[in-house]
Please model this.
Amino acid sequence: MVQFVKALRAGGMRVSLAESAEAFQATELMGIQDRESFRLGLRSTLVKQVSDFPRFETLFDLFFGGGPAPAFENALDDLSAADAQRLAEAWQQINQELRERLERILAGAPLSPQELEQMAGRVGLGHANDLRYQAYLAERMGRILRFRELEEALEELLRLLAEMGMAQARLAQLADRYGANVRSWRQQLLHFSGLRIAENMGEDRRPESREAILHKPFSAISDRDMEQLRREVRRLAAILRTRIALRQKRAKNGHLDAKSTLRTNLKHGTVPIEIRHRDHQLKPKLVVLCDVSTSMRSCSELMLSFLHSLQDQIRKTHLFAYIDHLEFISPDLTARDPRLAVEGVLARMPSGYYNTDLGASLENFAGRFLDTVDSRTTFLVVGDGRNNYNDPRLDLFDLISRRSHRSLWLTPEPPALWSTGDSDMNRYQPLCHRVLVAGNLTELSSAVDHLLAGR
Model:
């Protein structure tokens, strides 16, 4: 109950110490045996405004349980001997990793606490303290389970079983129970992510240190964190500007070209009287495509902030934002600060988690802006490589990459997630000169330094 009250406060409700004491008194009088009486007792003592009812109900269900638990059905326990033999033979032709997970779903086995904790660690759920990210983080955990590949494996399994003579009614039953159990897995993920966020909201947390904020995953960034990160970007950009300027000053005469120097001085008996240098490093020319969908918004905004602060270290920049289509945003960033520029772009584009389409955006770019890329251009994509199973247009990305001096990709997701769910990152990666992972501000700053250093 103490955590519950703290979570209500963290969610924006005003709950005084006296009201908290009244809630405990009401519980002592009414008991907790009857869940509805317990709920109404807490609501009547803790909630002052009708507008706060939905927040109260959501957190109450997360802390004290609500609704039926996910139901699982075993689709394998009533198979005939002949069908069990067919299934055993068909399993041998399914990818082993997918086979084990698919068999668990068909058998109605829920996700274990250890599996949930492991996935939570991979998506940064332990840092999240805002229930608005519940569905998003549950969806990211679902990507690790590879539901799309599992569905394809199920289709292959059913096809093999049909060829072996299994009855259509039995095949339909397997498919129906698979779908019901997958929905139960998703329900587990959604409840677990909500409960963990609610627990995080209810913890006594000291303000995070600057070092902790710099290393906090973008997936767990709150609105308050973003305000601090925007200030950190300005500080880090000043450090980078000094470092880059010093690097360019040292290289103003170019790098020593040992081979050319030896060849030139053969007439002097190889005594290096005439020194030869390679061309000195030029400021980069950039073409940048930023994914500004919900899952990428924090990373893209901070990247744009870096580029805005370091314009004097860049020869020329063409900036684009995309979700399901491309928008040219260089004028927006020139006229306003990055946060307002991104907000202005989002006002012209649809928001959401599941409508990203980089393939369509690459078509827009190739049709209208291809001449911005030449042999002196660094082409950069800032995105997680997730296309919602749309055509990734690898042919267009390859064309742009070969046309540029070098192509870089900056993603907040680690390589372990590149082949999960709707990610096409493992397909784009071979077409890039280099992929940079930037899951927090420290890594993003390092990636920007790499970008402007021309490495």
